[in-house]
Write a structure and sequence with these properties.
The complex is a heterotrimer of chains A (287), B (255) and C (286). Chain A has 12 helices and 2 strands. Chain A has 287 residues and is an all-alpha fold. Chain C contains 11 helices and 2 strands, in the order ααααββααααααα. The chains are: A mainly alpha (287), B alpha/beta (255), C mainly alpha (286). Chains in contact: A-B, A-C. Chains A and C meet through helix 3, helix 4, helix 10 and helix 12 of A and helix 3, helix 4, helix 9 and helix 11 of C.
């Protein structure tokens, strides 16, 4: 049961991340392989605040969300100016830069060995120590984020983003803001990433750079692609399906040293298969 | 002397050695349909781009209702009351006809994520109002029964009408129409021409790039003849067509 | 003398990176595909050479056989992945995601089939060193410089003076026109993929001889290469090659003032800042 709870918790957290990636890549059309970096910053900020007892859980979440909001605007800034493929390089570069920072900024991140003994989350003095209450917290956070995503996408703002993805020039000719709307998408995605990072750090009580590397960004992209781009349902289905995959793999006999490689290779294969045969994913729209 | 509605003065624009606009100056009056004519490559679309802020001329200036538009971004120019259409339409193909129009309505509540998320009911109300307003505009251009259709499923003539509907949604007083009738004939052409005249009667001033002489004769109050990025002549349609030198340039001696 | 040693080390790495960069540039400027999986081919080449060496072949056999195998792999990628996507009119984003997926497959397959840890070649020639005016170089490094520069020269000659090269440049400048004039863009794309994959296999092996093999490092190498491609002006082989050398020399010199693990990060930081100021790259026309 505990094991199943963990799966649900992680899936909820990744739904929040999936929303962020979907918002940027699917809806605003900004390619990004640096969302794991944002996720990582959220997790490290929270862990740092809690381990060093700088502040409580909720203020730490707010800090993480705020930091990720600002950071995501800054790293998306090139996409607002730079033509398509050049931004791809900057996006990869930012992810590698973040990994280098997580690995080498020993004072703040604990370097390659990561940060351990992160205190559990607490809400108004009530510590969330058992898996059951953590599940409730994560599901609640997921539902709130889904609601926010739904409201934002089914509003004039969502319509504006879709229009921008189709034809920026026409949007400008209609007297609508293009760059502020994209920056707002990055900000919202940043908040989602920060919240997810906070939950992740407090749930596992241990984080290290490997959870926030390029592979993690590819995993996020796979979740959106498999679930389906540009829909709420897609962002929810993707994480639940992809995180179930490792559980399925445990039924096959593979040595534990190979498990990570096999899993990540499979994610790659899924990316290709969906791009070739079902670009709209399980429940989305064509990319 | 009164200030002209739109005054374009001394625009110059060079594209890598090609002089697209050369001391281009003309004025248009409020409430009229002015047709911008001239051979291919005369700089008609470049003039549109320069007026609407999509292109920054090297020199010259544009005044609208006595205010300078120089160095303003496209957004600000739309808000000041000038909206333009594109030759290649640039409709949002993957959105509904209604959404194409609502997306151009100015100042909607819920256009920022924060207001959309934290004031959902107010946003929903604003969207309902926007939909009604857009439906009214669609009705007006004759697409009232197509509101829920995917834009890519419209006929070419209907797409042209939708472009005009989108311009109307911006609330602009001066419409810059880039070849609104190109590719149309018969009934579809008549529909667009009738619509432009009706909009004029309702007070919308228009600057129209037009190739079809018959259309120019039928709708224009004034004609600006552009050649090599320079205004060669301006006058009534009758005056312009009566000038054999202009016909020579326009038709390359075919007449 | 440390300064000189770092300078030379940077030059060696830069030559290898230069081949990665200009081979990527060939693919990118011709097919317009941001071929991230190129890093996979680069990595795979080293491991194939390692296995050949393990099977008792001298390293020179690997250097000759592996590029041929990789050329075939490149054609397979084009035919089975990029061509079908192009036929489906896939967007740029879709092709990029697919390429990223392929990279993930190749890298992880290597980690599973060979080893996730670093592997070294057994041969002894590569670690023999010579000393020149205080600078120590091993034979693998010397081979890297000689072979890379030769490949650069040969590729430059081939694209300028051979029929295939002219065809590649024609398709690169206008695929639509090329289609009309029966230059068979699709066949040309496959040829470019074969050529680029064969080229990138060589530094994949040479760097492996010198520093050993790791499954996931190719991504960073390729991205540093793309930085050089963009800064050097897309489509310019010489620009890509030279800027690669400049970048790695600067990275090596930076070791004088800061620890090495930061140099890649700093490179990208400078690149991001640079892109904000000059979004179209260094040598692009205004």
């Amino acid at each position: 049961m505990e094991y199943f709870y963990s799966y649900l918790i992680l899936a909820s957290i990744f739904v929040v991340l999936g929303l962020a990636t979907n918002l940027l890549v699917g809806i605003a059309g900004i390619f990004s392989v640096s969302q794991a970096a944002i996720f990582g910053v959220g997790a490290y900020v929270t862990a740092y605040c809690l381990v060093n007892e700088v502040m409580g859980f909720l203020p730490a979440v707010a800090c993480a969300a705020g930091a990720c909001l600002l950071l995501n605007i800054v790293i998306t800034l090139p996409a607002l100016r730079v033509a398509g493929d050049y931004f791809v390089v900057t996006s990869f570069g930012i992810q590698l830069l973040a990994t280098a920072a997580f690995l080498n900024w020993n004072g703040a991140t604990g370097g390659a060995s990561g940060m351990a003994a992160i205190p559990p989350a607490d809400l108004f003095g009530y510590a969330i120590e058992d898996t059951g209450s953590m599940l409730l917290l994560c599901v609640a956070a997921m539902l709130l984020c889904c609601l926010a995503f739904y409201l934002a996408m089914n509003s004039p703002y969502g319509r504006l983003l879709r229009a921008i993805r189709e034809d920026e020039l026409a949007v400008a000719a209609s007297g609508k803001p293009v760059i502020p709307a994209k920056a707002a998408a990055a900000a919202l995605a940043g908040v989602f990433g920060g919240v997810a990072g906070s939950l992740y750090a407090t749930f596992l009580s241990f984080i290290d750079p490997s959870s926030f590397d390029l592979n993690a960004s590819v995993l996020l992209l796979s979740m959106v692609v498999v679930g389906g781009a540009r829909t709420l349902a897609g962002s929810i289905i993707g994480p639940f399906v992809l995180l179930a995959l490792p559980q399925v793999l445990t039924m096959v006999e593979i040595p534990s040293t190979m498990a990570a490689g096999v899993r990540q290779g499979l994610y790659g294969a899924l990316l290709i298969a969906f791009m070739l045969f079902r670009p709209q994913g399980l429940a989305g729209q064509k990319l | 002397m009164t200030v002209p509605f739109l005054q374009v003065s001394g625009l110059n624009k060079n594209f890598g050695g090609l002089q697209a606009l050369r001391d281009c100056s003309f004025a248009i009056e409020k409430g009229r349909i002015t047709c911008l004519v001239g051979p291919n490559g005369a700089g008609k679309t470049t003039v549109f781009n320069a007026i609407t802020g999509f292109l920054r001329p090297e020199s010259g200036s544009v005044q609208f209702q006595g205010r300078s538009l120089d160095r303003l971004p496209p957004r600000a120019i739309v808000r000041s009351g000038i909206a333009r259409s594109f030759q290649n339409l640039r409709l949002y193909a993957d959105m509904t006809v209604l959404e194409n129009v609502t997306s151009a309505l100015p100042g909607q509540f819920g256009e920022q994520p924060l207001s959309a998320i934290f004031r959902p009911f107010r946003t929903a109300r604003a969207m309902r109002q926007a939909n009604e307003q857009a439906a009214g505009i669609l009705e007006h251009v004759g697409l009232g029964d197509q509101a829920r259709v995917w834009t890519r499923n419209l006929s070419y003539g209907e797409q042209k009408l939708l472009c005009i509907a989108r311009l109307l949604a911006t609330g602009a007083d001066l419409l810059l129409l880039d070849e609104p009738t190109s590719g149309l004939s018969g009934e579809a052409l008549d529909r667009v021409m009738a619509l432009l005249r009706r909009l004029q009667a309702e007070g919308k001033s228009q600057l129209v790039v037009e190739h079809n002489t018959r259309v120019v004769m039928a709708i224009a109050d004034e004609v600006v003849f552009l050649h090599g990025g320079h205004v060669l002549a301006q006058g009534s349609p009758a005056e312009i067509t009566a000038d054999p030198a202009l016909a020579e340039i326009y038709f390359g001696g075919a007449l | 003398m440390l300064l000189l040693q770092l300078l030379v080390n940077g030059l060696v790495t830069g030559c290898a990176l230069g081949v990665v960069a200009f081979s990527f540039s060939l693919v990118y400027s011709t097919t317009k595909i941001f071929h991230v999986a190129h890093a996979g081919v680069y990595t795979l080449a080293g491991y194939l050479a390692w296995s050949l060496a393990r099977a008792g072949m001298p390293d020179i056999v690997g250097l000759i056989v592996v590029p041929v195998v990789c050329a075939g792999f490149g054609v397979v990628i084009q035919r089975l992945l990029y061509d079908p996507l192009a036929q489906r009119r896939a967007t740029h984003l879709v092709v990029l995601i697919a390429s990223l997926g392929l990279l993930a497959i190749v890298q992880n397959a290597i980690a599973v089939l060979w080893s996730p840890d670093i592997l070294h070649f057994d041969s002894t020639w590569r670690v023999q060193t010579i000393k020149l005016v205080g600078v120590t170089l091993n034979y693998a490094q010397i081979a890297t410089v000689v072979v890379s520069v030769a490949l650069y020269g040969a590729t430059l000659f081939a694209t300028r003076h051979t029929g295939i090269g002219k065809r590649i440049r024609a398709v690169a400048s206008n695929p639509f026109l090329a289609e009309l004039t029966r230059l068979h863009p699709r066949r040309t794309y496959a040829m470019v993929m074969a050529l680029a994959s064969a080229l990138v296999a060589v530094p994949g092996m040479l760097v492996g001889f010198d520093l050993g093999l790791q499954p996931y490092t190719g991504t960073t190498v390729l991205l540093t290469g793309t930085v050089a491609v963009i800064a050097g002006g897309v489509g310019s082989l010489t620009g890509a090659f030279l800027v690669s050398i400049v970048v790695t020399v600067l990275q090596n010199l930076s070791l004088l003032v800061m620890p090495g693990q930061w140099s890649v990060g700093i490179t990208f930081l400078i690149f991001v800042a640079f892109m904000l100021v000059r979004p179209r790259g260094l040598f692009a026309a205004a």
